[in-house]
């Protein structure tokens, strides 16, 4: 890796931006790290350069890429944060300070590990860019894990899989998430990984390529006729998700149909729907598999049309249709917004709701164990989204019930809820909601008390707090007569 490559990558994504500071950061870091060697035997400077390149790839801004080059300087060399501030200014120095504060994760038991996690969540809440640097640092360390002793490999891989990869998913940086997961997979389940990789890369490669070529052969002339500029892409390989599906759904490799997935990238939203129409006239769509994430984006902002069709030979194939802009967003997640909106202030406003949740939880829990547990439970629990009858998307944690939905709409709706209508069927309030369920809450005007028993199945902090608050306030214990979902008085 060279600084020239980083500068080129950065300039490609940011034409016209003066990137001289990257060269200066390199000169400074190279001198500071001179003589240091990585476990792989390379000069140490290669590591921060790789980190900076990864940052440039996800379109990080200038200060972040520069901080990537400098990120290990205060920790590992005689140069201090003050030196960085004097040479590169407050913004870059603060980013490096954020990384340095996170520290090297030193594996000294569970206690220490949780302490590190807490630091990470808090750093994220202060400036999300620090976490992007930390993630690229982690990705490069994962790529060079071979040089560490096996016990350390296992610990780092486990931690990456449990903490870093899910956070990357929440931030919507799928490319990073997949890369981290596949690397962890390789170290944590080497046998399964090797088997799957062999199947994917050797046994199935020709078959897959033939199949994709047939699809393209059928699709291309029609797209041409409709004069739709497009690019067809075979989906990024992601062995870990195939492995997980095989395990959780107890299926064989060949039964996981979305191994066959294609992506059609077009110029504008109109074309997305046109392409969808064309696809559905060539191949029969599988019922219930069409998802319009353009009209109703996912909570993390993801947009695309998804459909699964019976392709050549009746084989199921998933197609994703999106514009170039949507495509970039799906790869780079939150980072993609930097590209268009360079001002940090705007980024702060774009912060997802969970950052505020982290800050709130931090105020509430001083004990590190509780804090981390709470965050894992409340913030980083898998998310689903459901729809109001009007089509508004409401984000909820996995396993949420209509009660969580009701409180997400309004405390009054929650308090006076008696039952729910989910996908036009009457449901109990403890019903477990699924992605894209359409939910309506039936309330009773005179009922203003939540039911304490709802605590048994409420999942969100908002719902639990509201129910508890009433339970505390209420002088009566008679609210138990509202049996969940029965709606009886
Ligand atoms: Mn590093």
How does this structure look, described?
Helix content is 55%, strand content 11%. It is of the alpha+beta class and 489 residues long. It folds into three domains: 3-189, Hypothetical protein af1432; 196-334, Beta Polymerase, domain 2; 381-482, Roll (Ubiquitin-like (UB roll)), CATH 3.10.20.30. Strands 1, 2, 3, 4, 5 and 6 form a six-stranded mixed β-sheet that branches. It has a three-stranded antiparallel β-sheet with strand order 10-9-11. Helix 2 runs parallel beside helix 4, helix 4 (62-70) packs across helix 9 and helix 8 (109-126) packs across helix 9 (128-143). 36% of the residues are buried. Residues 105-109, 338-350, 477-483 and 485-489 have low confidence and may be disordered. Bound molecules: manganese (II) ion. Manganese (II) ion is lined by residues 47, 71-72, 137.
